[in-house]
Amino acid sequence: MFGLFLLQGYTSFAQLKTYQFEQIDSLQKVAKRNVVVFIHTDWCKYCQTMQNTTFKNDDSIKMLNEKYYLVDLNAEERQNIIFNGFTFRYKPTGTNTGIHELAEQLGMFDKKISYPSLCFLNADNEIIFQYPEYITSNVLIKILKQLNP
């Protein structure tokens, strides 16, 4: 009885598949898909909430795993990232602060970046849609269905 209470509302234990930017070119050769880039930081409470709700929803997981490649991008990543034939680097903006060039390229919306942000790319790595704020699983699913019916 106690175990059922704990699992109520969590019908499966599906795992969300995430990929690195360096894998996308190879994956696209196997199966063409749109790419969803989740741009976040470690200190952003809305980012953490989104990771624990939106990306834990069974319907979101199913749709993302079946029809998209999801890339998790920490905007403060310090490692170089090679993507689409370019090398993107971390840019310090202060003593202990900075932003990754790729997060800037994909997350800028109206000349600013906010966290969390989602950037949707087509199979040719072109931006087709950006969503610069927290998003619920219901809204994410609607967007995913529109971008890939």
Description of the molecule:
- This protein has helices at 2-7, 21-30, 45-52, 58-67, 101-107, 137-147; strands at residues 34-40, 68-74, 81-83, 86-88, 90-92, 98-100, 117-121, 127-131.
- It is of the alpha+beta class.
- It has one domain: Glutaredoxin.
- The strands form 3 sheets. The protein has a 4-stranded mixed β-sheet with strand order 2-1-7-8. The protein has a two-stranded antiparallel sheet with strand order 3-4. The protein has a two-stranded antiparallel ribbon with strand order 5-6.
- The relative contact order is 0.19.
- Mean pLDDT is 90; it is low at 1-11.
The CATH architecture classification is 3-Layer(aba) Sandwich
Q: Looking at the structure, what is the overall shape?
A: globular
Round the Cα radius of gyration to an integer and report it.
Answer: 16 Å
Query: End-to-end span in angstroms?
Result: 40 Å
Order of helices and strands: HHEHHEEEEEHEEH
What's this model, at a glance?
The protein is an alpha+beta fold and 149 residues long. Helices cover 35% and strands 24% of the residues.
